Every structure is written in structure tokens, then in C-alpha cells.
């Protein structure tokens, strides 16, 4: 595969402030790669508009008319970042040799794209982009992310540490991805499950060129919890173990109470009793919430609703 046809897949949600700059930078990268004969001349930049409410789709549509490299998909509503990436890959997987997914804010280093393509030509089907420095991010975002990846590994989830969604995926890998039928998509955990030959490139992450991040703390927490519940049942096992130890502790305390009563000792216990009730009540509600999350995901899966809906497809021609 000397000159593969590559499609850049960029999820976009309310990115009107940066789209012109993003298109300009990516077009320069694409043309340089074509001149170097690393990719074919019919390679493209595909924006997946995830139900934007600003003028993002208008900007994308205008560029499609004047720029032969730009293509676009518009989803019928906001399905979320992960499904927007997935939609772009599924719609374009039969039209190229490989795809490179990256965010429209271009915080990822475009210079390593050339290295990704070299690794593709060396037989790798998946190439992960892994930031070695995340100085552009705040401490309160960077540190929890590092802890989260370690937590996932402790729970038995095979995941590439610090990797987000900057990756190269071959047509073969994308075809296998299409066989994964879950509705709760967490791509960072799915790709290692595919099992094809893979490699990674490291780079330094930069600041956004404009606009505001679309992942709020709440959305990041939801994504993180989705990753745990989608790939590990360890929390359920911890609940079982905790319940077991509480039961053992209860039996020990019961023996202590009965022994004290038999010996005629008075056991003052109103405060400890109330604290125990509140503590165990809180633990039970918390654990019920975890179990409820797993049940909710089962409920979502069995309904088999479409994972995404394409309202407009401007990728042909």
C-alpha cells in the first residue's frame, strides 16, 4: 500500500469559530502528503457535523462547493462525540484505504500524521496517537485523566494510556469495528479488542486554536463511567465483596452484643446505631445506583435503536 487513500474524519459540534482555520491547516497537510506521494490525490477531509446549532454546517457546505478536498456528513441531532466519530468511520470505510480521526480543534500534532501513514505501510492496521505531554490542559483535567486510565487497567480493561481519539484505522480494522453492535460506544476501549497489529506515535498536545471545549466536566465524567461499565464488571464484583465483608462484620458484632448481654453489661449504642444506619443506607443507595447504571445500559442495548442518523450526506462527487 504505497499511496493509500486516506480520509480525515473530524467530529464537529458548534465549531464555527475555528472551522476555516482547521480546513486551511488540514488542506496544507493533505497537499504536502500528496506531493510526497504518501497518500493518493483523492484523499479527503470529512467533517461530521454532530447536530450543531450554530453556522458550522453552513461553513462546511460552503467549503464543500469550493474545495475538492472537503466533504461532510450532517447528523440529524447531537448524538455525542463518540458516535459522531463512529458515524464518520462507518459511512466512509468502504471509500478509502484508511481513516485518521481527530478533533476539529486540532490540538493533536499534525506532523505525526506522516509517521502514522508510514506505520500503516509497515503493516499496522491501527496507529494510536498518544500525547506524552498535556501541558495545554489544566491540572484538574490532566491529573484525573491519568488516574482514570490507571483505574481502567486495574479493572482489567485493555486500553492505551493517555490515548483519546487521534488514531489511524485501516479499512480492515474499520470493517471489524462495524461488527461491534453495542449502542454505548467507547472507542478507546473497543479498538484494543479488535486485536490487529497496532502501533503508536507520541506527540505534545497543544492549545485550542479558538472556541471553547465541548466536553464539560459532567460529560467527561459520563464518558469515563461509560468506559467502566461498558468494559468491566469489576464494580459489581466489588459490591459483592463489600456485602460479604459487611455480613462477616455483622456476625462478629452480633456475637459481641450477645456476649455482653449475657455478662450483664449495658451497651450504650444509640449514636453508633444511627451512624451505622446512615452509613449502610448511603452505601446501599450508592451501590444500587451502580447496578442501575448497568441495567440502564442493558435497557439501551436491547432497544436496538439506530446509533446515529445521517440527515445530509455530502461526501460524493
Report on the architecture of this protein.
- The chain is of the alpha/beta class and 317 residues long.
- The protein has a domain at 6-150 and 160-211 and 306-314: Spore Coat Polysaccharide Biosynthesis Protein SpsA, Chain A (Alpha-Beta Complex).
- Helices cover 50% and strands 15% of the residues.
- The protein has an eight-stranded mixed sheet, sandwiched between helices.
- The protein is elongated.
- The relative contact order is 0.15.
Outline the fold blueprint.
Blueprint: E1 6-12, H1 19-35, E2 44-49, H2 56-66, E3 70-75, H3 81-92, E4 98-101, H4 113-121, E5 126-133, H5 139-154, E6 167-170, H6 171-177, H7 187-194, E7 198-204, H8 217-231, H9 234-262, H10 270-303, E8 310-314
Parallel strand pairs: 1-2, 1-4, 2-3, 5-7
Antiparallel strand pairs: 3-8, 4-6, 5-6
| Helical content band | 40-55%
Number of helices: 10
Class by alpha and beta content? alpha/beta
Which term fits the overall shape? Answer: elongated
The counted number of beta strands is: 8
Distance between the termini: 24 Å
Side by side, the strands of the main sheet go 7-5-6-4-1-2-3-8
CATH topology name of the domain at 6-150 and 160-211 and 306-314: Spore Coat Polysaccharide Biosynthesis Protein SpsA, Chain A
- Return the average pLDDT rounded to an integer: 84
Largest sheet: 8 strands, mixed
Which CATH-level-2 architecture of the domain at 6-150 and 160-211 and 306-314?
Answer: Alpha-Beta Complex
Instruction: Give the ordered list of helices and strands.
Output: EHEHEHEHEHEHHEHHHE
Looking at this protein, list some descriptive labels.
317 residues, alpha/beta, Spore Coat Polysaccharide Biosynthesis Protein SpsA, Chain A, 10 helices
